[in-house]
Every structure is written in C-alpha cells, then in structure tokens.
Amino acid sequence: MSPAIKNVLVIGVVALVLFLLITQPTQSAEAVQTALGWLRDGAEAIVTFVKSLFA
C-alpha cells in the first residue's frame, strides 16, 4: 500500500473517531469500556494458560 493511501486512511480514521467522540460521547465511552473489558479478559486467559503450563 502506498504511503499516500495510508495517510488518507489514517486521517479518515482519526476524523471518524473525533466525530464519534464529539457527537456521541456516552456511546463512545461504552464502546471503549467494552473493548478494554475484552482486552482484560484476554490477558487474564493468557495468564491462566501460562500458570497452568508451569503448575
């Protein structure tokens, strides 16, 4: 992918995120909390897996 296309995509994603944060702050916060919950659950699963390997 060319650098120009990457720049356009990055600017587009940033603009979309800013638009959503400004127009729908409550829903945006809920989405971030959900994503962080998924990351936490995934990290806990990995820790449990590694602990079970060495137990």
Characterise the protein shown here.
The structure is a single chain. This protein is an all-alpha fold. It has one domain. It is 91% helix and 0% strand. The chain has helices at 3-23, 25-53. Helix 1 (3-23) packs across helix 2. The model has no long low-confidence stretch (mean pLDDT 95).
What would a concise description of this structure say?
The protein is an all-alpha fold and 55 residues long. It has helices at 3-23, 25-53.
Question: pLDDT under 50 segments (min length 5)?
Answer: none
Radius of gyration: 18 Å
Q: How many strand units?
A: 0
Q: Report the order of strands and helices.
A: HH
Distance N terminus to C terminus? 46 Å
**Number of separate helices:** 2
- The overall number of domains is 1
Helix content: over 70%
Which structural class is indicated by helix and strand composition?
mainly alpha
Largest sheet: none
The pLDDT mean sits at 95
What does the overall shape look like?
flat
Beta content: under 5%
Name some characteristics of this structure.
2 helices; 0% strand; mainly alpha; 55 residues
Reconstruct the topology from this structure.
Elements: H1 3-23, H2 25-53
